[in-house]
Amino acid sequence: MTIKQLSIFLENKSGRLTEVLETLGLEKINVVALTIADTSEYGILRLIVSDPEKARVLLKEKGFSVNLTEVLSITTPIEAGSFAKALRIFSDENISIEYMYAFSLEKKAMIVLRTEDTEKALIAIQKHKMELVKGSDLYEF
Description:
alpha+beta; 2 domains; six-stranded antiparallel sheet; VC0802-like
C-alpha cells in the first residue's frame, strides 16, 4: 500500500510556499506532512495532504508544476534508535532509499520514504512485520 504525495517545484522567491499553502487552506485541504529540499534556483516541496487528487488539480490550475508520486510510510516507536532500526532492515535487504522525512502523529513516529524499488520495500516491510501506514489513515487528518 502506497501513499500519494504531492511533489511541487517552486522557484526560490518570496511568497511561493505561502501561495501553495493558502490555495490548499482555502479549499479545506489539510497538510499532514511537509518537507522542502532546495537548491539555489528552486525547491521541491513534498506534501502529504487530506485530498491529494483535488490538491494536484487546484495547484496545476494555479500554474504550479506538481506531480503525484507514490511513497511508503511506516511507523516506529517514539524512542531513541527506532529510526535506525527501521532503516537497518532496508539496508540489510539492499534497498536504496531515494529520500525520506519523518514526523510524529499521536503516539507514533512516521517515516515517509521513497525507495528505488517499491515492491521489494513492501516485501521487506511485511517480512519484518513493520507497521505500514495506509493513505486513508493519513488523509483523514
